[in-house]
Structure formats: structure tokens, C-alpha cells
Amino acid sequence: LPPVFAQWIQNTHALAPGTTAPGATTSTSLTWGGGGLVAVGGKVALLPIPLGTADFLVHHIHAFTIHVTVLILLKGVLFARSSRLIPDKANLGFRFPCDGPGRGGTCQVSAWDHVFLGLFWMYNAISVVIFHFSWKMQSDVWGSLSEQGVLTHITGGNFAQSSITINGWLRDFLWAQASQVIQSYGSSLSAYGLFFLGAHFVWAFSLMFLFSGRGYWQELIESIVWAHNKLKVAPATQPRALSIVQGRAVGVTH
To answer: What DSSP designation does 103 have?
Structure first.
């Protein structure tokens, strides 16, 4: 199942200079095709990017995440003041409590909830883009060029075969490349490895705020307060968790 539409776009850009700019000798980028590779110091800098079934699948994932993000934001605008479920949204304001039907409110219906959900799906969309770019480039573009002219890609061109399954992404991309980070701790690249690990922690930590469930933080803090009460070291001022609205504000800030 080749990505026919994506290949058509590639071919159109590769042939465009011949019709729109006859004086141009090449297309705007070698990635469109129709040219050779560019190597600097034995390392591949640019190369026409081949597209196949794996790209066809990932392109549809990109389309899905982008459409869901846009639809959520559009729904938030169209139903910001009123909806069939809650006709008096205009009286409740931009944001109102989201504690579930059992505690007096229905979740994910305020305009603020739609902003939050849109941001969450934006995270999902960006994650897939980063994963796709990283693995695709290492598999089919970046690599080394020997003196004999033999091209060896970083991951040996395994994207086309492995990325068509979830297990392939976990095994041949995430887990296979995690070893490089682990091994970097004992080398001169340890600082970069720690930066890499820290960046992932910040990313995961911010995501934690965005999809933390209803009442999660309140239950967590209440369990800590219970332990302090059992030990008779509870302070006079009882700590309370952030509200859902406040927690999402913290998550968006992160």
C-alpha cells in the first residue's frame, strides 16, 4: 500500500522547477527525489526519501491526531455558550468544576476543558511526528558512506519492516535505542545522556498533569494526611490538593 498521494506531492515538487522556474537546475530539496545524495565527511546529509506502506500508515496517524485536535478546538468554540447537554454554559463561565456526575458536574464540557483536551492531543500529534522523523531519517536517510561508495544507514533501513506494528516501534526503535542512552552514562557523553533523560522527565511530568484523573491528587494528599494523623504529627493547617481547574492550569504551564 504505497502512499500514492504523498508520492504525488514528492514528484510534483521534484518536477516543479522544470515548469515554474526553467532556469533552476534542481528542485528545492533533494528529499523530493530526482537527485543523488549529499555527503559531508563521509556522512549523509541529504538523500531522496523513499515512501512505502509504513509511511502510508504513519501518515494516517498524523492525519488522525491533527483532525482530532482541530475538531476538539472547533467543538469548544461552537459549544462554548450552550449545548444540548448543558444549555446554560454562558452562565457558568469559561471554566467550571469537573468532578463527574456524582459530585455535581459533568466533565469535559466547558470551553477550558476543550482547550485542555486540544493541548493533550497536540502532545500526541507532536510525539508521533518526533518518533516518525527520528526513526525514518535514521533508517532511510542518515548514514555513512564508505570510500567504495557503499551507503550504510544508522539503523539499517528497518523502518519499513518494523514500524508497521506497535511491537516494532517498542522493540526496534524505543528499546533498541535506549541502550545508547544507558551506555552513555559511563562515557564522555554522560552529560548529554543526562540532559536527554531530564528532558524526557520534564515531558512525562507535564503529561502527568494533563491526564491525571478526577480526584487523584486529592486522594493522594488525603492518604498522606491520614498517615500524619496516625503518627500524631499532623499540622493544624490541613493541606488540600489542587482543584481540577488549578491542576490543569499547572499542567498547561509545564
So the answer is: G
Report the interhelical angle of 53-78 vs 4-20 (nearest 10°): 90
- DSSP string of 144-197? EE-TT--EEETTTT-HHHHTTSHHHIIIIIIIHHHHHHHHHTTSTTHHHHHHHH
pTM of whole model > 0.90? no
**Spatial distance between the Cα atoms of 75 and 9, rounded to a whole number of angstroms:** 31
Q: Where are the domains of the chain?
A: 212-254
User: What's the pLDDT tens digit per position in 177-190?
Assistant: 888 888 898 899 89
The span from the first CA to the last CA of the chain, in angstroms, equals: 40
Which of the pair, 148 or 184, is modelled with greater confidence? 184
Q: Name the pLDDT band for 5 (thresholds 50, 70, 90).
A: confident
